[in-house]
Amino acid sequence: MNAPLFNREVQACPGWLRVFAFFHLNLAFSSIEEERRGEVIERCYWPLLRLAERHAHIGIEVSGYTLEEIAARDPTWIVKARELVAANQVTLIGSGYSQMIGPLVPARVMQENLRIGNEVYRALLGVQPTIALVNEQAYSAGLVSNYLDAGYTAILMDWDNPSAHNPQWNPELQYLPQLAKGADGRTIQVLWTNTAAFQQLQRYVHGDTSLETYLRFVRGRRSMGTRALCLYASDAEIFDFRPGRFKTETKLSEFSEWGRLHQALTGVRSEIGINLIGPQHVLKLADREGGGQVLNLETPACPVPVKKQRKYNLARWAVTGRDNTAINAACERIYRGMVARDASPTDWKELCYLWGSDFRTHLTESRWTDLCARLEAAEAQWSLPQAGPIVVPADAEAVETRHLNVQTPHVYARLDRRRGMAIERLRFGEHSHALVGGLAHGHFDEISLQADWYTGHSVFEAAGEHKVTDLEWCDATSWTTAKGDRFIRACTETSKGVIEKTMRFAASEPRVDFDLTFHWDDWGKGVLRLGHFTLLPDAFDP
């Protein structure tokens, strides 16, 4: 019944569909205990190499840290992987030494992460990759220069989220290599990953759907022209193994899931008009009609696109987890100390490890304890002495007026005491326009934006309670130091207690520092948002 229909379909679709697949290897997986890593190598990583022997050009993306962990536990795997890479059976895809979230770390840290990763790739696998996976598909335009400077010529990036925020894009762009434009104007080639495609493969392998259902999905991606589709771009540790992140994980199957992966790839390769190739071969399609277009993957509404559903956003790795705010702050302190003390190239390796994304999600108790110990040791070695509390001098002047103008050689600001000393205008250096500040209600015509917009305020929200902010009348004092720095302290009464805000307007550089103290006895459960700023439209070219 299916064969004649299938043949008519092929005649109507003469174009070729090139497909490729790669597997993400990660022994730092948050929910996997260290003592189970040998089991992961045996149950997941060895079958992957055997799969690559049967289906050439399979991609393997692996961090330098994971390679070192494999080498320490099963060096024969490294030997075999090196052989397959040398024989072009496996395409090595890089990501750096650790799986860190690039947009959340300083550019120097990302630079060191890629450098150290390349050193490990060369040492253990004898090659330096030229294609990189953007970690957790968390992309920002500033990363492009990091990848290019590290020797990469292409990145793998999720299609769904950038395209959702760029409705003007032609959907056909996802089937050919394009160019991502970086913050410095340079471009890097982009190969697209496809969430629906890899989830369809996972469903078949886990026994949720039939092989025919999966092949029908792949078949449906053919068209009259040349297309390329990424069949798989996700974890290797979910086949014949379960990481234990969620109670909803499917149970281990009675059949071999790696065997079903082989069946799926065999089925795909048997389809007329479909060809399995390596990621590096897909890049050669950039000169086809519709390929090689320069794109800005980011937008003002979505400056950092990430993978899959909306729950995957920067907040996931920035402020959630067991205590991401604290461990990210600790890493930042270590980083500043390393820069100030001119750390050696080898010193950066530990910081790259500590900034790994897996410490910021479903981390186990024992690994959390180990992380805290290593963070404490690194802080003891690198952190700079912390400044003491800011003391208001006896000659500080009380601010009596509603508005206060603050000026130093590098900063001009206008503050509003009626709104807790929120910044109405902030201008740096010789710029004629203020960069950030406030926008009054009615500035925008769009109803969803019709509110007052502020800079430098705090908001606390709890379920069933009124919103708490420091956008009220405040008591404020002002003083100037011997160096010319101007300080403003504002104390705002709220229903939960006083919010104390101290601002320093620097005299020697274009810089404003905020120091916040919440004199609250009972926080309760809620969400605290800090560091708000509003970019003023007049400061930018139309």
What is the structure about, briefly put?
By secondary structure, this protein is an alpha/beta fold. The protein has helices at residues 2-12, 37-54, 64-73, 75-86, 107-125, 143-149, 160-164, 195-205, 211-219, 257-270, 279-282, 314-318, 324-340, 348-354, 365-382; strands spanning 17-25, 58-62, 90-93, 131-133, 154-158, 178-181, 187-193, 227-235, 274-276, 294-295, 397-398, 403-407, 411-416, 422-428, 436-437, 459-461, 468-469, 475-480, 486-494, 497-505, 512-520, 527-529.
CATH class of the largest domain equals Alpha Beta
Number of helices: 15
Largest sheet, strands/sense/barrel:
5 strands, parallel
Distance between the termini: 60 Å
As for the CATH topology of the largest domain, it is: 7-stranded beta/alpha barrel
Multimer state: single chain
* Rg, Å, rounded: 27 Å
The backbone outline, from C-alpha atoms, is globular
Q: Domains counted in the coordinates: how many?
A: 3
Number of strands: 22
Explained architecture:
The chain has 542 residues and is of the alpha/beta class. The protein folds into 3 domains: 17-295, 7-stranded beta/alpha barrel (Alpha-Beta Barrel); 316-382; 397-539, no CATH class. Helices cover 31% and strands 21% of the residues. The protein is built from 15 helices and 22 strands. It has helices at residues 2-12, 37-54, 64-73, 75-86, 107-125, 143-149, 160-164, 195-205, 211-219, 257-270, 279-282, 314-318, 324-340, 348-354, 365-382; strands spanning 17-25, 58-62, 90-93, 131-133, 154-158, 178-181, 187-193, 227-235, 274-276, 294-295, 397-398, 403-407, 411-416, 422-428, 436-437, 459-461, 468-469, 475-480, 486-494, 497-505, 512-520, 527-529. Strands 1, 2, 3, 8 and 9 form a 5-stranded parallel β-sheet that branches. The protein has a 5-stranded mixed β-sheet with strand order 4-5-7-6-10. A hairpin with a 3-residue loop joins β12 and β13. α9 packs across α10 (257-270). The protein is globular and about 80 Å long. The termini are far apart. The relative contact order is 0.11.
